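Attaching the record inline, Q. Sequence:
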Amino acid sequence: MPENKILRRYEAQDLLASGFNLRVPCLVEGISSKPLRCQKILRMLPGKRLVFLADDSSGEKLIIKLMGRGAYAVKQHNREIEGSQALTSAGLTTPTVVDHGIDLTRKISFVSYRYLAQGVNLSEIFKQSDNRKKTVLLETVFQIIARMHNHDIFQQDIHLENFMLQNEKIYTLDCASIVKPTSKKVINRMAITNLGLFVAQLYPHLDPIIERCFDQYRREINHLSFSFQQVKQAAFSARTNRMQRYRKKVFKSTSAHCCTRSWQRYLICRRESCDDDMNAFFRDPDAAINQGKTLKAGNSATVSLVSIGSQKYVVKRYNIKGIWHSIKRLFQTTRAWRSWRSAHMLALLDIETPQPVALLEYRFGPLRRRAYLVTEYLATETGTFLNELINKGLTEEQGEKLFAPLFNKMQHAKISHGDFKASNFFIKDNSILVIDLDAMRLHKTKRSAEAAISKDRDRFHQNWS
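Structure, as predicted:
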């Protein structure tokens, strides 16, 4: 491999410590007798865990799980191997372990798996399937879960992304999350919790389909007995916890986002968009807004179409209207902050919205001042706003039919929009993208959600009057 000469070389422990600044491809030493060529980073927890796709010296593709920090590395290594053995013993298909090892001197461990070429993640298949295919897929996964439970093994991080289809076989991934309790007394309760966790990863509006698929689990299971209502209660608790964690996570540095904060400002941006052009925009966003095309010039907000590098974005600046308004806003989360959080929340609920790209707040310590939100630009050639469709003759009855799936999703998720005017909805290939999330709310009770969604419905119908 002559091009290896120009690739940066890392010792395994240095690769693990590189964090989000790691650039691939690169060479990794200290895992096998010859350097591995790291091609793609799949998952990263800086300093603790790194999962990557690599080529060995013979050209074979491997998935490498590299763990660090001493005791954690040993524990994760052992869980990977024991989990793989437990799945195999239960007759379930899982990727083949090619090699593994622990290096106590360097405080690292690794496990390498054979790469599933042409394998497709079940999460991707599920997203692209209609309800009939979703049902077949879920029934198959429920069968696999039942086989795990029949052998008293549980996947603690159970969701569709941890299953992969290759050559008509479904592989169970993430062996480190496999546990086998020693006490038989907790098996029934663990099964309910485990199923609740799996259901919680699916969209709430699919619960009626999930309940029908649960019958497949009941037919397969040997020694457990409980109702779907018990699973649904466990799923409700898991969804609540998941949503709370996620709504906090989107404001931190992760593999998806880079975040910087100081006394004067807070900034978070999609990592793939955070280049020199975007950083130049952050240094003087007002200049870019003034040079861009004004889409809305209001007292409370200014919206502009801005070119940043070769890309177009919509930038929304939340204005301060006066001294008393500024004092009031100092002690509240900004509308940009709430919109950023809501946009990411919708991704968990199967509701489309323009992709949030960046959030910038000017601050004085903990006190918040002016704020900016950068989102994906929706080109009018790709779709139409609802108000334009109404002007072209879309009837109220047609609008009700078009928006029925959106209201159904909102009802199941207990969220309200707060401003259902027609210009806040973009129609693209019969999909609805929700815009202007300033007033969106996640409700704690069904009653509160129903009251707020009823107001949304009333405002929706006013678009025709």
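The CA atoms of residues 99 and 200 lie 34 Å apart. The radius of gyration is 25 Å.

More tomorrow.
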